[in-house]
């Protein structure tokens, strides 16, 4: 039995049954990381000592009968490097926070730990979560385990690649405009962006506060549902956290979509989509129809406005959120300076990468005096219209189906000189963030280059159970494929 | 929207960034194309639309007026590049 | 020379008297070692989030209601973005678009009569940290203890025309806020700070002139001097054919003049936008009614009640209610000893004398009202006489002494032993034959001298009534 090939829930069960010790699981995972991470560069920080020590503590508790209701107890997992872990480097894959050790953990991390999960390391990402390829990381790009010449997607590219490459049983990612779903799609795994407010943002280093959500990334829908069940919940430390009441997401792991109403927006299959992706999505829709769901196309015309609205709002908030990195309280400080303004400018110019600087300038522009109404305020109005269009759609449908991304994984370096083209790749994912909706991406096929295609299912506010049920039902029709067997001959 | 040298100078000053000549040119080009693209939202008539800043339906999230934190200076200063006398140290702010 | 009119509007920042900060559970207590009243939230550490202190909203509402404002029923916070070391998040959470209170005003009274000063708005925001300039090391040190202390900013309309009006407005505002318990308004601790927007125009001109803003006003006296100084400066600029520049100036009270503050390197563009980390606030009818119902008796009502219910002179009531502290002492002491007129007298005479002598504000009084009440009771029961009482009061005032314990310790109680007193009176009669003769000769006044002499011999510890009757008996 190869431990690292197990799903998180399978491993959890074996640990409970005494077939595998927590230490064995952690050691197996560490060994796998050592073996593979040179090729994929998923990790920024590996917490070897901490994880081994914690494995013993968790084992003791399990042996003492604790964690009885916790299916993930003893399972090693890794965390995107923009989610704070107490006393452990949390860099946002930026030079700016290259030495930052937060004196607190994110609420989601604390909840995982309380459930007996063993945190094993911190995962690479686009710098400050800005990007869709993990190429903007200060610590070098992560590579897609399906093809190391392609990107794993982003910004949670390290999380997606680690799960796919069996360097993590599951991971936490964050999703501001598709940063969980698109890398999940590119790496052939499952990722859920929860309803805004479902998971506490406390300890998630802010990119765009009104859009950011932490979510699970795993090898299948069941793992993601189980992880979400642990990390979701109201948190008094986050004013935008909500009390959803029902957090029993694993109850929705039911292979039954009979009578479920699924809509496909016509604009999700139009201009710009890769033909192979389109066919795969339509085939997936057909599978759900055959299983008894009512699937139909419907007209939705706001799609193309989501990208500009998203980039205006996200960049504006980012420009404000990232102003605090000034070389005074934490993080990088320029070695040579004369006076305060010089500290600010040099620290920030040296500490941030090109994409982050670009977004901060866009953000400063759209908020600046004279342009606020034309850009920022207008974007908030468009956001309202987008939300309305989803409200209307959800009067008719339980779930909205479409592709996660218009293409499969791009070559490393593709569109490096054309940021706008890169931004357009987020066309199907950003709407869920603007409207606060939950959405899942799960693998539904491959293109002719054997790169995974992701199916996106979007639910209504707090409709996690709907999308989990639909995703689980679809998943039952196809076996999980790992890139590792293919590429490393195992 | 044509992004001028002046605009780049202004927004980089707001963002407290010092750009090289090359970066300025690149920023001018990129911001020009991105911001022009954003202007497709002007196709939409939003006169009657209330700007939506908070998408979540929650209001009045409060905490009670209770002191729960004790001194925590060590942690507060633990990541600072430079400190003195229990304070963050910065270059002189007045002449 | 033309006649000019000064036009003044104020932005008053008031630190609220909450126990904890606006967005985290750190103490708001003044002082403390640097950065010991701080946590990851108020120092803006990455990933931390604010949660609003309910009391802040209630205090802001109370301030708005007491100043005749309308309360914005749906309001929210905005971010004001600027980078400076005293602001760790690089933005101040404030309110621009929907301030919690709008369109109010208060009535002031000056030598030229009554006048209403409009209040444009009151909004909630967080205070910044403190910068300590270290000349020795040629650097600046940053202390975030004050960072996140809740503030309301009260923005007046440009309705004031003189320093006298400004002071009257500030005094009135201060009293309202103190009576509400919303702030202690201690200028010396920075819990009340005023920025002065001042312009001048030719008398009768319809348009406003260009205004300057003066910050860093730390006393009413400095404010008055700054207004006069800046008015004079602006007139001189105009008389010399120049133009007033819209700028921020720093008043230097020692040099008695204002200086232009070096304009910051970059343009001020605060890029306000709605704060995404905080939920909007919705104020219901019930909540508003609850805050209204909680409103304590304010000064004018108190003053009226003092003259009516306690029958103290209007002048006294005015002085006592001019300080929340004095009014509190008055009511607490009167409730214990049931002698409001006596309490009022002690406050009006001895307390005022000592305050003046020690150059103190009434707010700095530290004695407990119980001790004043007990002192009054001791006088009433003849346990001490009035002369001794004054000495005892000084101890009460200075060290909050317990009057009974103090009198006992110092042996100041009245001697009620009649034989001892009779002996003393006999000695005085024997020693002052001239006065005795005068008295017997019909000079009634002479007995006063003999009472005084006896009192002196008794070291003040005798009841003058008793001396008087003994003297009359023996003569």
UniProtKB/TrEMBL annotation, chain A:
InterPro entries membership: Amidase (IPR000120), Amidase_CS (IPR020556), Amidase_dom (IPR023631), AS_sf (IPR036928), GatA (IPR004412)
GO BP annotations, alphabetical order:
translation
Which reaction does this enzyme catalyse, per its entry?
A: L-glutamyl-tRNA(Gln) + L-glutamine + ATP + H2O = L-glutaminyl-tRNA(Gln) + L-glutamate + ADP + phosphate + H(+)
* Transferase in keyword set: yes
What does the record give as EC number?
6.3.5.7
The keyword Transmembrane is annotated on this UniProt entry: no
Instruction: Write out the entry's keywords from A to Z.
Output: ATP-binding, Ligase, Nucleotide-binding, Protein biosynthesis, Transferase
Q: Where is the active site?
A: 80, 155, 179
Q: Which GO terms describe its cellular component?
A: glutamyl-tRNA(Gln) amidotransferase complex
Q: Which segments constitute the Amidase domain?
A: 24-466
What's this chain's function?
Allows the formation of correctly charged Gln-tRNA(Gln) through the transamidation of misacylated Glu-tRNA(Gln) in organisms which lack glutaminyl-tRNA synthetase. The reaction takes place in the presence of glutamine and ATP through an activated gamma-phospho-Glu-tRNA(Gln).
Family to which this protein belongs:
Belongs to the amidase family. GatA subfamily.
Q: Which PANTHER family match?
A: GLUTAMYL-TRNA(GLN) AMIDOTRANSFERASE SUBUNIT A, TRANSAMIDASE
Its assembly, as annotated, is:
Heterotrimer of A, B and C subunits.
**Name listed for the protein in its UniProt record:** Glutamyl-tRNA(Gln) amidotransferase subunit A
Q: Native species of this protein? A: Anaerobium acetethylicum
Task: Write the gene name.
Answer: gatA
TrEMBL record, chain B:
* InterPro entries registered for this protein in UniProt: Asp/Glu-ADT_sf_sub_c, GatC
Gene Ontology terms, MF aspect:
asparaginyl-tRNA synthase (glutamine-hydrolyzing) activity; ATP binding; glutaminyl-tRNA synthase (glutamine-hydrolyzing) activity; transferase activity
What keywords would UniProt list here?
Answer: ATP-binding, Ligase, Nucleotide-binding, Protein biosynthesis, Transferase
Domain of life of the organism encoding this protein: Bacteria
Tell me which positions the record assigns to the signal sequence: none
- Per the UniProt record, which EC number(s) apply here? 6.3.5.-
Pfam families with a match to the protein in the record: GatC (PF02686)
What chemistry does it catalyse, as a reaction equation? L-aspartyl-tRNA(Asn) + L-glutamine + ATP + H2O = L-asparaginyl-tRNA(Asn) + L-glutamate + ADP + phosphate + 2 H(+); L-glutamyl-tRNA(Gln) + L-glutamine + ATP + H2O = L-glutaminyl-tRNA(Gln) + L-glutamate + ADP + phosphate + H(+)
GO biological-process terms attached to the record:
glutaminyl-tRNAGln biosynthesis via transamidation; regulation of translational fidelity; translation
Record-annotated membrane-spanning stretches:
none
Q: What class of enzyme is it?
A: ligase
* UniProt record similarity statement: Belongs to the GatC family.
Q: What does this protein do?
A: Allows the formation of correctly charged Asn-tRNA(Asn) or Gln-tRNA(Gln) through the transamidation of misacylated Asp-tRNA(Asn) or Glu-tRNA(Gln) in organisms which lack either or both of asparaginyl-tRNA or glutaminyl-tRNA synthetases. The reaction takes place in the presence of glutamine and ATP through an activated phospho-Asp-tRNA(Asn) or phospho-Glu-tRNA(Gln).
Subunit note:
Heterotrimer of A, B and C subunits.
**Name of the protein in its database record:** Aspartyl/glutamyl-tRNA(Asn/Gln) amidotransferase subunit C
UniProtKB/TrEMBL annotation, chain C:
Q: Which domain of life is it from?
A: Bacteria
Q: Which GO terms describe its molecular function?
A: asparaginyl-tRNA synthase (glutamine-hydrolyzing) activity; ATP binding; glutaminyl-tRNA synthase (glutamine-hydrolyzing) activity; transferase activity
Keyword terms:
ATP-binding, Ligase, Nucleotide-binding, Protein biosynthesis, Transferase
Outline the extent of the Asn/Gln amidotransferase domain. 328-475
Catalysed transformations (reactions): L-glutamyl-tRNA(Gln) + L-glutamine + ATP + H2O = L-glutaminyl-tRNA(Gln) + L-glutamate + ADP + phosphate + H(+); L-aspartyl-tRNA(Asn) + L-glutamine + ATP + H2O = L-asparaginyl-tRNA(Asn) + L-glutamate + ADP + phosphate + 2 H(+)
* EC supergroup of this enzyme: ligase
Q: Would you kindly state one Gene Ontology biological process term found in this protein's UniProt entry?
A: glutaminyl-tRNAGln biosynthesis via transamidation
Biological role: Allows the formation of correctly charged Asn-tRNA(Asn) or Gln-tRNA(Gln) through the transamidation of misacylated Asp-tRNA(Asn) or Glu-tRNA(Gln) in organisms which lack either or both of asparaginyl-tRNA or glutaminyl-tRNA synthetases. The reaction takes place in the presence of glutamine and ATP through an activated phospho-Asp-tRNA(Asn) or phospho-Glu-tRNA(Gln).
Q: What family is reported?
A: Belongs to the GatB/GatE family. GatB subfamily.
Q: What is this protein called?
A: Aspartyl/glutamyl-tRNA(Asn/Gln) amidotransferase subunit B
Originating organism: Anaerobium acetethylicum
């Amino acid at each position: 039995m190869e431990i690292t090939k197990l799903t998180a829930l399978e491993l959890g069960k074996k640990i409970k049954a005494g077939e595998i010790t927590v230490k064995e699981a952690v050691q197996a995972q560490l060994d796998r990381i050592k073996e593979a991470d040179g090729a994929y560069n998923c990790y920024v920080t590996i917490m070897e000592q901490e994880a081994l020590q914690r494995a013993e503590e968790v084992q003791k508790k399990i042996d003492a009968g604790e964690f009885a209701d916790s299916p993930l107890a003893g399972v090693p997992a890794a965390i995107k490097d923009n989610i704070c872990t107490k006393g452990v480097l949390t860099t946002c894959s930026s030079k700016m926070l290259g030495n930052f050790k937060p004196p607190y953990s994110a609420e989601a991390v604390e909840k995982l730990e309380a459930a007996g999960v063993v945190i094993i390391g911190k995962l690479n990402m686009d710098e400050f979560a800005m990007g869709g390829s993990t190429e903007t990381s200060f610590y070098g790009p992560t590579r897609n385990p399906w093809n190391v010449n392609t990107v794993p997607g982003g910004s949670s590219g390290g999380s997606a690649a680690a799960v796919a490459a069996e360097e993590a049983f599951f991971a936490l990612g964050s999703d501001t405009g598709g940063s969980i779903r698109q890398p999940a799609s590119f790496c052939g795994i499952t990722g859920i962006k929860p309803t805004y407010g479902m998971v506490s943002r406390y300890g998630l280093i802010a990119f765009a506060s009104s859009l950011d959500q932490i979510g699970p990334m795993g090898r299948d829908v069941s793992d993601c549902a189980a992880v979400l069940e642990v990390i979701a919940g109201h948190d008094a430390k986050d004013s935008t956290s909500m009390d959803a009441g029902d957090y029993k997401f694993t109850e929705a792991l039911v292979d039954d979509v009979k009578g479920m109403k699924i809509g496909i927006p016509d604009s999700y299959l139009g201009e710009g989509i890769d033909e192979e992706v389109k066919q795969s999505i339509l085939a997936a829709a057909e599978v759900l129809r055959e299983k008894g769901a009512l699937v139909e196309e419907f007209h939705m015309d706001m799609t193309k406005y989501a990208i500009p609205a998203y980039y205006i709002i996200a960049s504006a908030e980012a420009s404000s959120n990232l102003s605090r990195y000034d070389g005074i309280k934490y993080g990088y400080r320029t070695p040579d300076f004369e006076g305060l303004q010089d500290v600010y400018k040099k620290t920030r110019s040296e500490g941030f990468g090109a994409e982050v600087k670009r977004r901060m300038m866009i953000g400063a522009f759209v908020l600046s005096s004279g342009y606020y109404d034309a850009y920022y305020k207008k974007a908030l109005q468009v956001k309202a219209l987008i939300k309305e269009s989803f409200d209307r759609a959800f009067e008719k449908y339980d779930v909205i189906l479409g592709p996660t991304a218009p293409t499969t994984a791009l070559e490393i370096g593709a569109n490096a000189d054309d940021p706008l083209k890169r931004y357009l790749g987020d066309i199907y994912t950003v709407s869920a963030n603007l409207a606060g909706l939950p959405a899942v991406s799960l693998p539904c096929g491959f293109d002719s280059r054997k790169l995974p295609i992701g199916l996106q299912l979007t639910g209504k506010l707090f409709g996690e159970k709907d999308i989990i049920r639909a995703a689980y039902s679809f998943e039952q029709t196809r076996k999980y494929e790992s890139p590792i067997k293919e590429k490393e001959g195992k | 929207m044509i992004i001028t040298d002046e605009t780049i100078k202004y927004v980089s000053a707001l963002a407290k960034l010092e750009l090289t000549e090359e970066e300025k040119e690149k920023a001018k080009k990129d911001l020009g194309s991105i911001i022009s693209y954003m202007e497709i939202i002007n196709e939409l008539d939003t006169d009657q639309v209330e700007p939506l800043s908070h998408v979540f339906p929650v209001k009045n999230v409060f905490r009670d007026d209770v002191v729960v934190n004790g001194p925590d200076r060590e942690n507060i200063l633990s990541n600072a590049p430079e400190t003195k006398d229990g304070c963050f140290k910065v270059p002189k702010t007045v002449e | 020379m033309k006649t000019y009119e000064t036009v003044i509007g104020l932005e008053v920042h008031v630190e609220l008297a909450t126990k904890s900060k606006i967005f985290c559970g750190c103490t708001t207590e003044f002082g403390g070692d640097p950065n010991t009243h701080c946590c990851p939230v108020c120092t803006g550490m990455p990933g931390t989030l604010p949660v609003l202190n309910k009391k802040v909203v209630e205090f802001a509402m109370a301030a708005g209601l007491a100043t005749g404002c309308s309360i914005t029923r749906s309001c929210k916070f905005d971010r004001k973005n600027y980078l400076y070391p005293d602001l760790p998040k690089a933005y101040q959470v404030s309110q621009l678009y929907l301030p919690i209170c709008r369109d109010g005003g208060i009535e002031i009274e000056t030598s030229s009569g009554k006048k209403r000063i409009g209040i444009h708005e009151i909004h909630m925001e967080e205070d910044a940290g403190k910068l300590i300039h270290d000349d020795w090391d040629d650097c600046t040190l940053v202390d975030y203890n004050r960072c996140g202390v809740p503030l309301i900013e009260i923005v007046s309309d440009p309705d004031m025309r003189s320093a006298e009006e400004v002071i009257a407005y500030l005094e009135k505002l201060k009293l309202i806020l103190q009576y509400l318990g919303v702030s202690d308004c201690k200028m010396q601790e920075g819990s009340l700070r005023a920025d002065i927007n001042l312009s001048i125009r030719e008398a009768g001109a319809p348009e406003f002139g260009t205004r300057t803003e003066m910050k860093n006003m730390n006393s009413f006296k400095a404010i008055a001097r700054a207004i006069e100084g800046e008015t004079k400066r602006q007139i001189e600029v105009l008389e010399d054919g120049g133009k007033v520049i819209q700028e921020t100036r720093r008043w230097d009270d020692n040099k008695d003049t204002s200086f232009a503050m070096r304009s910051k390197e970059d343009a001020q563009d605060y890029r306000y936008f709605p704060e995404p980390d905080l939920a909007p606030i919705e104020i219901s009818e019930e909540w508003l009614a609850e805050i209204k119902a909680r409103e304590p008796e304010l000064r004018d009502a108190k003053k009226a009640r003092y003259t009516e219910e306690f029958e103290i002179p209007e002048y006294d009531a005015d002085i006592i209610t001019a300080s929340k502290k004095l009014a509190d002492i008055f009511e607490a002491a009167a409730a214990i000893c049931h002698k409001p007129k006596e309490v009022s007298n002690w406050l009006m005479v001895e307390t005022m004398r000592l305050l003046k002598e020690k150059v103190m504000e009434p707010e700095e009084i530290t004695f407990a009202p119980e001790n004043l009440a007990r002192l009054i009771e001791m006088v009433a029961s003849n346990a001490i006489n009035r002369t001794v009482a004054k000495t005892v009061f000084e101890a009460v005032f200075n060290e909050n002494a317990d009057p009974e314990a103090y009198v006992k310790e110092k042996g100041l109680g009245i001697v009620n032993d009649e034989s001892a007193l009779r002996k003393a009176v006999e000695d005085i009669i024997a020693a002052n034959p001239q006065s005795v003769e005068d008295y017997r000769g019909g000079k009634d006044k002479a007995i006063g001298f003999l009472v005084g002499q006896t009192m002196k011999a008794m070291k003040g510890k005798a009841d003058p009534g008793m001396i008087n009757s003994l003297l009359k008996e023996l003569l």
